[in-house]
Amino acid sequence: MIRTEKEKMLAGELYHAGCPELQVDLAETRAWLVRYNASLALATADRRRLLAERLAEVGADAVIRPPFFCDYGYNIALGPGVFLNFNCVILDVVSVRIGEGTQIGPLVQILTADHPRDPEVRRSGLEFGRSITIGRNVWIGGGAMILPGVTVGDDAIIGAGSVVARDVPAGMTVVGNPARSVPSRSG
């Protein structure tokens, strides 16, 4: 059975992003983003309804403050009480799951899109994605980047401006570029 480029993308395999089916999906998401990003003055419930039009899952009381940017939207699942502040970017070529009560600061980037390391394969235009999972009650400081394939455990803290290239265990605090563990502080 021959798989479509979209099926390959969703499976995390090498795919061509320029295929017509994915270009239609991207265009639909851009049109939705125009509507969503113009919704700042709307009530939170109205913005949640807009989110539910495009995202895979929108838990109760989940909030994304516009402006917001994503590739497809349909690969993003937000648990109850999730909060994303202004100017967050989620490149969701594969699944992005954000657990209940997680708070994400402004300018955070969650990036599942990846590219082959082999220059010949990369030159061919192929790319792939690696899923990102963020647990419950995580706090991600402003300007942080979560790179492809990372899992962040429950109750973890990602310091502002950190670049997270490796999994973060539950309850751990990481800061810096690359993000490294530091002792947690109460308060």
TrEMBL record:
InterPro entries referenced in this protein's UniProt entry, alphabetically: Hexapep, Hexapep_transf_CS, Hexapeptide_acetyltransf, Mac_dom, Trimer_LpxA-like_sf
Function, as annotated: Acetyltransferase implicated in the O-acetylation of Nod factors.
Keywords: Acyltransferase, Nodulation, Repeat, Transferase
Cross-referenced CDD domains: LbH_MAT_GAT
Regions that span the bilayer: none
A GO CC annotation given for this chain: cytosol
Domain Maltose/galactoside acetyltransferase: 6-60
SUPFAM superfamilies: Trimeric LpxA-like enzymes
Protein name as catalogued: Nodulation protein L
Family per similarity comment: Belongs to the transferase hexapeptide repeat family.
Species per Swiss-Prot/TrEMBL record: Methylobacterium durans
Keyword Repeat part of the UniProt annotation: yes
PROSITE patterns named among the record's database cross-references: HEXAPEP_TRANSFERASES
GO MF entry, a single one: O-acyltransferase activity
